[in-house]
Amino acid sequence: TMKRISLALVGVTALIASSLSAQAADPSGLWLTEDGDAKIKIAPCGGAICGSIAWLKEPNDASGKPKLDKNNADAAKRGRSIMGVPIVLGMKPDGTDKWSGQVYNAEDGKTYNGSFTLAGANKAELKGCVMIICKTKTWTRTQ
């Protein structure tokens, strides 16, 4: 009957609406770091999110050459350009607006456990932790 069909449609519509609201927010885009020195491109990567350096305020060192990943703990990577270096490493969804995994800090060349959490449409908090000591930086989406 018509009544049964319309009730079924209401149920299907409610189901679709609830599944849409349960989906994770989209962190993809270009994010300006808290200090304004770099932009990180965040994109999906195999069920996770990854982010790499896409822009630097000062891409060259004092001698005018492109900056290198000179502090990397892996000596084999110290000669690579800092541009394009992965910073947000395979962070997996951890709720609707948070991803957890690892973050690389090019300043000290070390990789930390961390998270990327959306704190609004165009704000995010990148957290890196060593043991119980954590640092959080606020990033702003620019694209």
What does this structure look like?
With 143 residues, the chain is mainly β. It contains 1 helix and 8 strands, in the order αββββββββ. It has an 8-stranded antiparallel β-barrel. Strand 6 and strand 7 (123-130) form a beta hairpin. The longest helix has 21 residues, at 2-22. The N and C termini lie far apart (50 Å).
Content-based structural category: mainly beta
Which series of helices and strands comes N to C?
Answer: HEEEEEEEE
Radius of gyration: 20 Å
Global geometry: globular
Helical residue percent band? 10-25%
- Give the oligomeric state of the chains in this entry, treating copies of one chain as homo and distinct chains as hetero: single chain
β-strand number? 8
What does the main sheet amount to? Answer: 8 strands, antiparallel, barrel
Provide mean pLDDT, rounded: 87
Strand order of the largest sheet: 1-2-3-4-5-6-7-8
Task: Give the DSSP E fraction (strand runs of 2 or more residues).
Answer: 35-45%
